[in-house]
Request: fold
Amino acid sequence: MKEERICICGCGKVFKCNINSHREYSQGHWSKGKTYEEIMGSEKAQTMKEKKSRFLKQKLKGIKYEERYGKRKAQEIKEKISNKNKGHNKERSYIEIYGLKKAEEIKEKKSKAMRGKFIGRENCFRGITFIERYGLERTQKIIEKQSKSMIGKNKGTLEEKFDKIKVQNIREKISKALKGRESKLKGKTFEEIMGVEKAKRKREKISKTHFRWTQEKIIEAYLNVEIIRKVDWNRLCGLKLLPCSGIIKKNFGSFENLEEISGKKFLPRRESNGRIGHKETPAIDQLEIERGRKYERQYKVITPEGEVFYLDGYNAEYNEAPEFDEIAHKYKKIPDQIRENKVKGVLGCTFIRIKEWKQPDSGQKDLGDFEIKFS
Reply:
C-alpha cells in the first residue's frame, strides 16, 4: 500500500511512498544546503570535487566567463579571483608561476599588446626611466634579475653567436644609431679606457692577429727558403711563409729590388718536360724529410752530345739525384740504365731510385710502400 507524505525540508512538496518506508524527503531534497563533506565524508568529498573539476575543465575549455555567465557576473567573478590572488605571486617570475613555455607566450602577447600604444602623441614609456616607473627598490631588483639571467649569455663575438647576414644587419644598425654622435672614447688611449693591465693584454692580442711585414722580416723569411723560383711565391704565400706580392711592391718596389737588397737571386724558370707523375712529388717530399736535405725538382742536364734530360730531383751539395719510377718503368729497365749512365757521365752523381712495385692510393706519402735503391 502507498501513501502521500510532505517533505520535511519545508519546501511543501508532496511525494508518494510505501506505508512501511522511512522516507522523509522529496527526491534530491535530503542533501539540500549540505556540503559534500557533511554528506559523504572528507576523503570521498575531495575525490568527488577533483572529478567534477576535471569534467568541467574539459567541458568549459575555451569558453570565456562572459559566454558562460554574462558580462556582469563575469566581471564579479574576475574581481573575486583578482582579490583572492593579490600578493600571492609577489616576487615570483612568470617562469616560476606558469612554466617556461607559457611564460614565453605571455611575454610575447604583452610585448605585442604594448607595441604602438600611445598616450596622446608620445609613447607611454618613452623617456621614462625605470626609477620613475617602479621606484628605486624595485628597479634595483629588476637590474639584479637581468644581470643574473644574462651571465654567460653574451660571451664571444657576434660572428660566434649569429650567422653572417644577421651580424651585418646588427653592425649596420649600430653604425646608423651612432652616426652624428660624438664618441666619448675619441682621443683616449687603451690605458685611459681600460687600465694598464687590460690594455697590455689587448695590445698583445692585436699584435698576434695583425702581423706586420717589415723589410727586415721579409728578407729574413726570403733567405730562410732555400730553393725558390718566382713561380713558387704564391704557393709559399698561401702557406704563410712569405708575404703576398702586393706587400713586396709596397716595401721594395719590385722583386728585382728584393733580390739586390737581400743578395739572393731567384732560381731560373724551370723548363717542364710535362712528365711529372701524381705520386712523384709526395714521394720526394717524404725523402727530403727523412734525409734532411732539399732537392731541386726537374733539374735540367745537357750531355756533350746535346741531349737534354730532366731529373726528378737533384742536390748539388750531396751530389744526389732521386728518381721516382712508376710501375711502367718495370718494363723500361734498359732505357733507364742508358739514361742513368749518360747523366752520371756529366754529373757523377748517386742515383736514388724509388720504385713503385706496389701500387698505393693516389696521394700516398709513405715511402714504405716503395722499393728504394741506391746506384
User: Anything to note?
Assistant: The chain has a mean pLDDT of 80. The CA atoms of residues 132 and 250 lie 60 Å apart.
